[in-house]
Write a structure and sequence with these properties.
Elements lengths: L3 H10 L9 H4 L17 E2 L11 H8 L15 H11 L6 E4 L2 H12 L5 E6 L4 H8 L3 E6 L18 E5 L11 H10 L3 E5 L26 E6 L12 E4 L2 H10 L7 H12 L1 H24 L3 E2 L6 E5 L5 H10 L2 E2 L1 E2 L9 E4 L3 H15 L4
Parallel strand pairs: 1-11, 3-4, 3-5, 5-6, 6-7
Antiparallel strand pairs: 2-8, 7-8, 9-10, 10-13, 12-13
This protein binds pyridoxal-5'-phosphate.
Length: 375
């Protein structure tokens, strides 16, 4: 998607073309992705929650032995191999599993399949900003529900207003906080709409892998739950764009009808399959990231930072003496990219992706020697 800066350029240079835009597009604030610099060799990139470790060796060897034999054929529209390997691990039928071109595509399909312009959705704040962008692009009303001073949302507050769906990330983006499943179950049992439980970061919450802490185990009790997962984070495959979702067969069937026939490329299906087969490799990497997270959290606290209780592959931190924007700019000047959100209630925070140990050591010594000094 374009940045708002890009859009302003288009509006200025091709003003007359805007007349062809539909109302939703005219009113859209485009999603602003984190910066993807070109010269990644010289930069420590801790701004978009990517995985610092390589993907499974079986993915690497598949890519190095690639031949073009099948590339002229369309891919399997039902992703049978990938779906089956996922289903076997979690004890689910193919009819309960959906695969998409990143979980972003699945989010988009949820809007297209289950929401209409007269509906309103709820988004606990703060959250993944794409939910708002998608609501705007499909002309669906949305309402933010505010969290408390510690950025924690009370489930009861989600009953404040009638709604057709709630979009909930767990662990939350951008705070990283994890919400207990019993609270989510209790809410969903009372709630008449759809509950979209976005578990992009679940593999980084203790015992999060598999179903121990995942909303997956709620599926047997609920027909209004969609659990979203991605290959972008714990499987280190953000570049191939693959995500998956679990829900009741009727919700999956709805999205199957709505999706583009060949929504997941042949290469993405094969790579995601290979990575999922090597599940223990993903778990080992996730474990390393969790221990790096706790190391970084402790070291940042020694340097005066406050941190939320993140159970994700990032920390969300603030410093009582330094403005987050100043820290962001100074770190960038030193070749370290982190994420700053110019959004209500978030301007005092930085989101720092958990890199590998060397990257974190460099970050910490730059903070100590060059940034947290002299003010
Ligand atoms: C909460 C959340 N959901 C979904 C996504 C998108 O994942 P994908 O790369 O599978 O589209 C992200 C990406 O950062 C995210 O933070």
């Amino acid at each position: 998607m374009l940045t708002s800066g890009d859009c302003q350029v288009i509006l200025r240079s091709e003003g007359t073309q805007v007349k062809y835009w539909n109302t939703n597009l005219k009113n859209l604030s485009p999603y602003i992705p984190g910066e993807q610099p070109k010269n990644t060799d010289q930069i420590i990139k801790l701004n978009t929650n990517e995985n610092p470790y390589p993907p499974s060796p079986s993915v690497v060897s598949y890519l190095s032995g690639l031949n073009a034999d099948n590339i002229g054929l369309y891919p399997d529209p039902a992703w049978t191999k990938l779906r089956s390997v996922i289903g076997e691990r979690y004890g689910l039928n193919n009819e309960q599993i959906f695969c998409g071109n990143g979980s972003d595509e699945i989010l988009s399909l949820i809007f297209r399949s289950f929401l209409s312009p007269e509906d309103e959705i709820l988004i606990p704040y703060p959250n993944y900003t794409l939910y708002e962008t998608l609501a705007q692009s499909y002309g669906i009303g949305y309402h933010y529900i505010q969290s408390d001073d510690d950025l924690i949302i009370s489930m009861d507050s989600l009953f404040q207003k009638d709604s057709k769906a709630v979009f909930f990330s767990n662990p939350n983006a951008p705070t990283g906080c994890y919400y207990d499943l019993d609270k989510i179950l209790a809410f969903c049992k009372e709630y008449n709409g759809l509950f979209i439980l976005d578990e992009a970061y679940i593999d980084f919450s203790e015992k999060g892998s598999g179903i121990t802490k995942s909303g997956l185990q709620l599926l047997k009790h609920l027909d209004n739950l969609i659990v979203l997962r991605t290959f972008s984070k714990s499987f280190a495959l953000a570049g191939i764009r693959a995500g998956y979702a679990f829900a009741s067969p009727s919700l999956i069937e709805g999205m199957m009808r709505m999706k583009d026939s060949y929504n997941l490329s042949l290469l993405s299906q094969e790579i995601a399959y290979k990575a999922f087969q090597d599940y223990s490799y993903m778990e080992t990497n996730a474990q390393k990231i969790m221990s790096n997270r706790e190391f970084l959290k402790g070291e940042l606290q020694k340097r005066g930072f406050h941190s939320t209780d993140s159970k994700s592959n990032f920390l969300f931190v603030s410093h009582p003496k330094y403005h987050a924007k100043t820290l962001f700019q100074r770190l960038k000047g030193q070749g370290i990219l982190v994420r700053y959100f110019d959004q209500p209630r978030l301007t005092e925070y930085l989101r720092i992706t958990i890199g590998h140990k060397d990257q974190l050591d460099t970050l910490l010594s730059i903070l100590t020697d060059k940034i947290l000094v002299g003010d």
